[in-house]
Design brief:
alpha+beta; 8 strands; 181 residues; Aminopeptidase
């Protein structure tokens, strides 16, 4: 697997650091984010630090990779992105991403997803990366498509989010034979 820091365009993916607390707090103000992960809504500094510690443990416990999306120029924290490896034995992974509200609308999510996907193809035995996107999330659909993911279908009543069953669009990227292993 590549040891290089994943980069693409204006972003680089790096480990979370204590200085990323303010970005995590900003991200926690987004009403949807706390319903899909382990970040508490309207987190305080202690909550944000606990979230950062959990991200550092993900690879050690076999859950996958968690990266801070940072500016390639300034290293300022912009958001989060992860590669979840629970289905790696079947050749699959899932990805998730979120850009803090203060940094949205500038293509950072697309660039981060592209960097993550390129990094993912360095993992032996990984052949497919899936994204699950609620149909109303047009910005995430645009991000997925711009990063080269293809829509494969609608999964009705796929999972519970925020106390209710929701549909999910399934997007995927497939490792091509000419991509590095």
């Amino acid at each position: 697997m590549s040891e290089a820091v994943p980069t693409f365009g204006d972003v680089r993916l790096r480990a979370f650091e204590d200085r990323d607390v303010d970005m995590i707090i900003d991200l926690s103000t987004e009403p949807y984010i706390p319903t899909i992960g382990s970040l508490f809504g309207n987190s305080n500094r202690d909550d944000a630090r606990a979230y950062l510690r959990r991200q550092h443990d993900r690879l050690d416990v076999g859950l996958g990779y968690a990266f801070c999306v940072a500016s390639a120029r300034t290293d300022e924290a912009l958001g989060t992105i992860g590669l979840h490896l629970a289905a790696l034995t079947a050749g699959r992974a899932t990805a998730g991403y979120a850009i803090a509200p203060a940094h949205r609308g500038r293509g950072f999510a697309r660039q981060a997803l592209t960097a993550l996907t390129r990094f993912a193809w360095s993992i032996p035995d990984l052949h497919r990366i899936e994204l699950y996107i609620e149909p109303w999330n047009v910005a995430s659909v645009r991000t997925a498509e711009a990063a080269g993911y293809e829509r494969e279908g609608l999964l009705r009543s796929h999972q519970e989010i925020g106390g209710r069953r929701v549909d999910m669009l399934l997007y995927a990227a497939i490792k091509q034979a000419d991509q590095p292993r």
